[in-house]
Amino acid sequence: MLKTSFHTDTQRLWGGLYGDVGTRNSLVKNHSAPSHQPEMQAPLTFEVLSKLYLADRAGEQKPTTLSSTQFTHGVIGSILQELDLRTHTREDLVALRDQLVMTRKPSTVNQMLMKVSAVLNWAVNNGHLIKAFDKKLKFTKGIESTRKAFSQDQIGMLMDHASRLPEASWKRWLLSLGVITGGRLNEISQLCVTDIQTLESGVVVIHINELGEGKSIKNKRSERQVPLTDGAYGFDLQAFMRYVETCKQSGNESLAQIGYRPAGEWANQQAIPQALGECYVKGLVFHSLRHSLASLMQAKGVPTAHAQAVMGHASGTITFDTYGSGVPVEIIAELLRVIFSAAPSSLHHPSHLS
Predict the structure, then answer these.
(1) pTM value?
(2) Which one of 1.10.443.10, 3.10.20.580, 2.170.150.70, 1.10.3720.10 gives the CATH number of domain 152-352?
(3) How far apart (Å, rounded) are the C-alpha atoms in residues 333 and 216?
(4) Is the pLDDT confidence value at 260 over 50?
């Protein structure tokens, strides 16, 4: 009887334990199993990262830079498509680079890759990616600039061409100012009547700045005052000042009669080839005027700080004030007068053709 009771109690005890295990197995099967299933994550594409990046950084970029960034991001996104950048490899980025260079110059591809790196490194720093494989992607060969400098004789031909245009034509002054100031096309194209200033010393300058709606300069060091040298290659300062006064009287704040892009197309595709004729070679564009002035100053031994004051460039060792350089404008005006005095004059003086 004792044996039977022990057997019954044992069955009851183990049966309860087995029953509990069965219940637990049922719970595990019904509730725990799904927690072991990996969650499906949407691919972290370049398009997604671009939106996150721009939401954080767009406010730090100038409108023109932001537009360029958005365009580049669109191109990159269309190439990488659904690639999950959480698992991207070096080979993926090399393939991207190789595809970009099929229809673009290496120098252009390098600029685009810099924007890719900016996004990837931002993503790493903000915890979206563990690692980026963008190091040493850029091309180091075949990136020489196709932009050339005009010879001094060619500059004379360009100024002669400009001199033949009417005094009331902005195209005449667009080309002339590019020659004697080395200003960038967008800097010249956005000049307002208030940017033409006569200082107490009597020096007339163009003030390159971004004060005003829609105006933009490359960086803070680009703001500067560049003297206008009367007689440089035949430049007629008084005729230009009459043009400025005419704009004032008509109520036009802007000196330009055509926009930035049409101005570039006219200068690069029409004016420069026509002015140079048989002397024209591919690669000579409006920006080449900037290279030409820089080369002239270098050839004449102009100190680096003075040249940077004219061009709006800076090294890390130069301290710049509000107008782009600590060098007094009067000193810049004198050095430009000296180097231009040795340059060939235009074949015709503008005043004879107004």
Answers:
(1) 0.60
(2) 1.10.443.10
(3) 25
(4) yes
